[in-house]
Design goal:
The complex is a heterodimer of chains A (about 350) and B (about 260).
Chain A (H helix, E strand, L loop, with lengths): L1 H38 L7 H12 L9 H36 L11 H17 L6 H24 L9 H26 L3 H8 L8 H20 L1 H7 L3 H6 L4 H23 L5 H13 L3 H26 L6 H26 L1
Helix pairs in contact in A: 1-3, 1-13, 2-3, 3-8, 3-11, 3-12, 3-13, 4-5, 4-6, 4-11, 5-6, 5-11, 8-11, 8-13, 9-13, 12-13, 12-14
Chain B lengths: L3 E9 L5 E10 L4 E5 L6 H8 L7 E6 L2 E2 L5 H5 L2 E4 L11 H6 L14 H13 L15 H15 L3 E5 L7 H18 L2 E5 L3 H7 L2 E6 L2 E6 L1 H4 L2 H8 L1 E7 L6 E7 L4
Parallel strand pairs in B: 3-8, 3-9, 6-7, 7-8
Antiparallel strand pairs in B: 1-2, 1-4, 4-5, 9-10, 11-12
The chains are: A mainly alpha (about 350), B alpha/beta (about 260).
Amino acid sequence: MSGGNRTVCGRYGRERSGAGLHAVCLVLLLAFSIVLAAHMGFMKIPVEDVLRIILDAVLNRPADTADQVARAVVIDVRLPRILAAGLVGGMLAVCGTVFQAILLNPLADPYTLGISSGAAFGASLVIVLQVLGVALPETFTVPVFAFGGAVATLFMVLWLASSGHDRRLSSTSLILSGVIVASILAAAIGFLKFLADEQVGIIIFWLMGSFSSSSWESTALLFPFAVFGMAVAFFFGRDLNIMSSGERAAVSMGVNTVRLRYILLVTCSLMTALCVAVSGIIGFVGLIVPHMLRHLAGPDNRWLILLSFPSGALLLLVADTVTRAVLPVEVPIGVLTALIGGPVFCMIFRKKQREYTGM
Amino acid sequence: MPVWKLQDVSFAYISGRKVLSAITLKFFPGHIYGILGPNGSGKTTLLDLLGGLGAPGAGNILYNGRSLGDYGTAALARRVALVPQDFLVRFPFKVRDVVEMGLHPHLGRFALPSREDMDRVTGIMEELDIHGLADRPVTMLSGGEKQRVAVARALVQAREALLFDEATSNLDIFHSLSILDAVKRRAVEQGLCVVAAVHDINLAAVFCDELVFLKDGMVVAKGTPGSVLSPELVRYVYNVDARVGTDEFTGRPAVSFRLAGSW
């Protein structure tokens, strides 16, 4: 008996340090990718110069005059874009992990609930208003309108989902409501494109997702909410694990499931809205990252939340660097992630179907 | 003092369909209660109300002398555990992790289980014969194995009372009996109050101290198996012909059935 006990503890020790090792590797890999991404581009800047420029900036040291151009490229052009891509990737991945845990569905991510469409609608509205001659300060209004759109969509979806017998917001009714609202919003965005007339290109390009206009303001906007969202998600990590045994069992184990859903859905809507405001619609990051991590580190949501941020950041940073510095033409990042993520989505869907019929 | 005291409890869905009406019952510590009745008679709803998963439309429920509604979700979960009818975990958690989930209401938010907690989990897993499955993903288990995991999780959690919703329906005889035996031991030794919805009248007669028969949301009979079981009651509740005798082997009342009017 004591032998069995020891193996159980040993297994636990191994597993936890295994996930911890993943975390350390991911963070190192992420740091390496940031430097590499800053090195790559139209103008190749040697890695040691990149490191020195970043170090100078961090320590607030005056730089050599010879370096001024390289410094401007790294600090003013590349780093803001790199950090924005990383933060958006990380936040989308955390949102995906949380949505999948709440909806008990490995196919869920911010898009399944229509929240990104809502945010996109809010942000498109700002662009159209500008085209129509209503001048609004863009850096401030786009995120606010995106959040407004996301939250309005969320409550619309929740209202639809809770209108029947089912006061407890089952995952089926949530996803179905999300699809309904998203399809209405798609039509509404189409109408905005029509209104935008000759300026329609701006909306289309932005909806496809891009980091080409990211600035230090984007990072300043995203960073506090990334930290906040991670903290909230991690705080409820164990509750999310318990949610996986279903509504009734979770309540009987002491989880206030309704409150948990509202808190996490609003937090993730906020994160999604900010991501959309900064970079347009970038799909499938929130879907793929938790799915891959579950194979690597197991289903424990506490680890998944911690690991999904650096993984999502790494994924989107690499994808953005590929479109920016490797491909001959800059493909919109949303198109690239959809082209890679779509087939993965199909594979997960097939596998899920097989598992259900197999049972 | 009873663990639960129900006074004129009624429950209806929003659609207006009445599921329970005027239920007055008491459940005492150290006893095993079997809730019996045909499909749709309100057994699961009654367990939901006892577990705080819904509030009665009328009447009141006291838990340890205090209104059940005054307990928070977590406070009630530290006292009462539920074994649901279909326990389904959607992600491939390992069996041991699922059983440990029963510790959730007892642990601080960021606390890890103590040595004693771990021993308690191991002990219960051995008792229910799932220790060998500890590292298996719970999604890959058979129906009966899943049900044993659900019971183990609930035994880890329960400190005062246990609600069983058809928790032995997927199990073979050996595992049914060993689960009921583990539960019985806790009732006798630790004063656990057990309320179990069961379909098998004979199993209930062997293990329960008292039986409660529901029909159309009302209590039609309650009492010890020996006093309450009669052919008339079984015919009234289930609409089948029955013979009630005493089983020589177990020494408990036993019921055999046939469809009314058939050969």
